[in-house]
Amino acid sequence: MESELYKKVYQLVIKIANGRKIKRAVFFDAEIVLTYLWAVLHDRPIYWACQKKNWPVYYRRKPLPTASTMTRRLRKQGVQNLLKEVERALIKVFPPSLCRWIDAKALPVSRISKDKQARWGPACGSMAKGYKLYTIADSTQGFVIWTVRPMNQSEPIVAQELICSLNGEGYLIGDRAYDTNNLYEELSHKSIQLLTPQRRKNAKRFGHRRNSVHRIRAMNIKDTYFGRGLLDSRRQIERMYGQLTNFGCGLSPLPNWVRTLFRVEMWVRAKLIFYQIWRTELAPSVA
User: 103-152, pLDDT tens digit by residue?
Assistant: First the structure.
């Protein structure tokens, strides 16, 4: 499957890059991106992909960049923009749906890691050190909006930044961590209705504090058969996380060489690119 994934991402990168190159550079942006994607595909560090012996014979004709060149060029804006364009092109293969989900996934690192940007935070009912992947997922388009932050970042606060890029009417389904008045109000400006379980499990209503009219409307929707079905559909994002982490070449625990926020975010983006290709072309039954 690795060869099929790389063949498809190779064609897409070459098509989008269209010979893009910076001045006085030996390698095109596409060559830098493809070398990095080859390393991520096989869960190996960058220097591994810079050695011809680790490539199939038919890919050894062209010279490969050195590890230092890769490290320097990967931080260039042109290379980063190319990675983002490839991801957006895969997302736009299908139209958006009316129902989307929001959730977060922990990306822990070792407790004794010297990564200065990793933080301690809640993860799966306990405390862990590392980062967290915050996502908004669509049943047809996959993970449409996401960001990586240190583990201690609050999910509702990061959600306010994610929904700024959210377009189109519909419903956004989340767990009880997102049951805040601010999110209901901000989403209402985009004609999106937020639905979540109540923050307190045993609460009957909202208490005596003033609440957003959109939060009250959500309570009325949740009491209907339609609303309960929407809340149950949130399990789909858990399935998508399962697919992302369990399919071949998926997002496994962060390897030792993926540290600091920049590297973690770039690693996650590459994994999401392969996941989008897998779900849309190699596993169409789950798209």
Answer: 999 999 999 999 999 999 999 888 999 999 999 999 999 999 999 999 99
Q: Are residues 180 and 140 in the same domain?
A: yes
Do 82 and 205 fall into the same domain? no
Domain extent, residue 221, equals 99-241
247 located within any domain:
no
What percentage of residues in the chain have a pLDDT greater than 70? 95
| The pair of three-digit structure tokens given for residue 229, joined into one six-digit string | 């079905």
Q: How many structural domains compose the chain?
A: 2
User: Could you read off the pLDDT of 244-284 as tens digits, one per residue?
Assistant: 999 889 999 999 999 999 999 999 999 999 999 999 887 75
pLDDT of residue 204 exceeding 60: no
Strands (E), 161-218: 170-173, 192-195
Give residues with Cβ within 8 angstroms of 110, minimum separation 6.
129
The neighbouring-strand residues paired with 136 are 102, 145
48 sits in the region (left: phi over 0; alpha: psi -120 to 50; else beta) called alpha
